[in-house]
Amino acid sequence: MDLTSFDMNLLPPILHELDLSSNRLEDISSSDESATIQLEVFNISHNQLTHLNDCHISCPDLRVFRCHHNSFSRLPTRLLDASTNQLESIDASYNIIAHTFDLCRHKSLKKLNMKMNRLTTMPLIPNSLLVLDVTENRIKDIGQLHSVSDAAPLALIELMLSGNQLSEIDGSTFEKYSNLQLLDISCNKLRNLPYQLGLLPNLRAFRVASNPLFTLKRSDVESNPDEVLAVLRRRAPKREEALHSQPSSILSAFISNGNSIVLSVSHNRGQWLSLVPPQLAACPRLVHLDLSKNQFSDLSPLVGDLLWAGTIKLLDLGGNCFTEVPMEVLAQLKCLKTLNLMSNSIKSLKRCTTWLPVSLVCLELSENQIEDMEDLVWSLALSCRNIQVLRIAQNKLKKIPLELGLFLEGKLSKLNLQMNPQQAVRHAVLERGCADQLAYLKNRMTKEEVLESRKRLVALHGELLSEKQSVSHSNSLGKDAAENREIAVCSNADTTNQGASNQSLNSPERLASLRLIAECKERIVGVQHEIDTNFALSQAKRYAMKKEIAMGRSFMIKEERKLGLRK
């Protein structure tokens, strides 16, 4: 049929189901409410209806109402209000409904489909609702879905919010959605996700693709939502009912065992510690200490004489509440190789040279709140020549220093800088291997910037030596033995300085300049060898390399003149 209008008065009063779908209806009229008194299913979908204001219909037994694919600007509240106790399903998708509405009185409502409308706010729903679909609307805020006076948990098991304009989600909103099994928030403008989503106990399907979530791994966001939920769970705060007592009896037994070299106080068998046991300082011959998954915020009880300061190789402080790096304790650990500070709340990495052990090989700083890593990069290059693993993912880095590319010439083999809000380096680059990332960063530096960075590094090295010597000349001989041996190599490499005084030869500034000259010479030789042996080089590349050699020689001449090695 191709009906354009329909008179409800023509219907028998005993009718239970009425299907007027797929016509060309523009108007439905009724003057007698008793004509549809027993109607349970009413389908007027796929028509050209804009309203039912002139239709006096009363359907107290109505269970299913379908009006999708029309041009309604509002829901027909007069029709729906007559069936508050029986209505179970409403499908009003593919209309132009923009006005919000309150369905909290419909205590039997199970399904509401408002897909492809013009809603800007969420409808108020009853606690009985199981499925809510508001896909492809203009919603900017989830807000309050249920009545404020109703404190009962929602029965909602499916919530579809894809294709809206959500920029943030209030985590407290989802604390009552313990029954939620499907959540679709894809194709929005979300930059961050609340940890409460990861704590939903029954969530089976989670869709979050096509959101600018810079704090999460892009490949996980697009195709591995389970890993996204796992990350959110790790970000959840620790339980407040943490254990505050000291495990003195366990530690006393440990200390009495002189052969013990590994100690784990991780998680404390399901209860978190908030205070560091001071007995830890007296543990002898300790090599591996695991203090992860507690509520430690500082290590002040350990400041002082540590019996294991010279033996500890691995220290795990991950999953705690540190807001600052425990510098006083770390500064004592001269043999530490692996340091884990993952999943804390550290914001700053200043004064890194005061606490970074020179023996460090692996540094884990992921899942913190670090905004700047420039001081860390220079300190690692200056003090930690053997660093091989650096992870600082899932922080708040606004910039990745290009100087990190200089580690391409070092031992660094594993690097993770992903899931930071910085914009300068594409996320596709950060998903590559360590060598590719370092090469990318270095290639973005000009030749002048590379030379200037190396010069600054040598100057910082000289300043560090000078500072240590000014504190205690006798102690610096033991602490800086490695540096002094390297300096001796640099000073012996240049034999033209025989007439200089012994004090001049040993000054940090002069030795730093000599080291810089030696590095420059080595670089020039390497570039010249590449030009002479690599016949596949393009003309432009050869020209650039020859220019680099000329600039290096000019720089070397200036430095030699400053030292009196050249007239």
From TrEMBL:
Keywords assigned: Leucine-rich repeat, Repeat
Organism the protein comes from: Cylindrotheca closterium
GO cellular component: cytoplasm
Pfam families attached to this UniProt entry: LRR_8
Domain of life, per lineage: Eukaryota
InterPro entries: Leu-rich_rpt, Leu-rich_rpt_typical-subtyp, LRR_dom_sf, LRR_domain-containing
Protein name: Uncharacterized protein
